[in-house]
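<instruction>
Derive C-alpha cells from the sequence
<data>
Labelled lines for chain and fold
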Amino acid sequence: MTFPIRAITLDLDDTLWPFAPIGARIERTLDAFLREHSPQTAAMFPVDAMRALRERVFADNAHLMHDLSALRQLTIEHALRESGGDPALLDAAYEVFYAERNRVEYYPDSLAALERIAARVPVAALTNGNADLERVGIAHLFAFSLGSREHGAAKPHASIFRAACDRLGCAHGDVLHVGDHIEMDVAGAARAGLRSCWINRDDRRWEHPELTPDLEFDTLTALADWLDAVPTVADAPDRPTQ
C-alpha cells in the first residue's frame, strides 16, 4: 500500500529497542545499590519482592499510569519506608534506576533505519515510557518527544496522538504512527485518525476485532525502504490540521 505522509510519530520501547533487557538490568543495578546503601531495604525487598512491590504500587495508583517516573519513585519510596531505610536515599536510588533505563541496546536495524527515516520526514517520539532521548543520544533525529507524563494521558488515548499532530503542524491523516503494540500504537493511532504501521518483529498474528494497520513490517529497515519507494511522501499538498 502506498499513500503520502508528511510526518511520523514513533514509539520507542520495543520498537527501537527491546525493553525486557533494560528492565532486568534495572532490577539488578537497583538491588546492588540498595545492598550497599540500605541493606535492610535490600533484605526486605530483593529483586522478586521489589518486582511484586512495584506491581502493587502500580495497581494502587492507576491514576498515575501515564507517569511511569512517578510510579517508579513511589515504589522506591515505599520500599525505603517499609524497610526502615533512609528516605533521603530516594533521589540517588531513582538516579540509579534512570541511568540504567536510558542505557539501550537497539535492535540491529533500528539506528540506521531511524537515520534514513529522519532524513525523509520529521519524526516525533510518542511514548508512554520515560526514556530521555538526550541521555540515549538520539534526540537530534527527532523533531520533539511527547511523553504521556508531559501530555497527561497515555496511548491509546486519542488526545496524545492529536497533540503530536498539532505540534507537527500536520493533519491527522498525514501522519503515520509506528509502533509495536497492537492496542496502544496501532489501534490508538487509527482511532485518532492517523495512519498506522505495525512493527511486528516476532511474526505475531494480528488479533484485533475492529482494526487493521495500514502497514506492517518486521523491521524499521522495511519501513525506511517503503518511504524511499514513495516519491511524494514529503510533497503532499498542504491541508489544514483536523
Summary: The first strand starts at residue 7 and ends at 10.
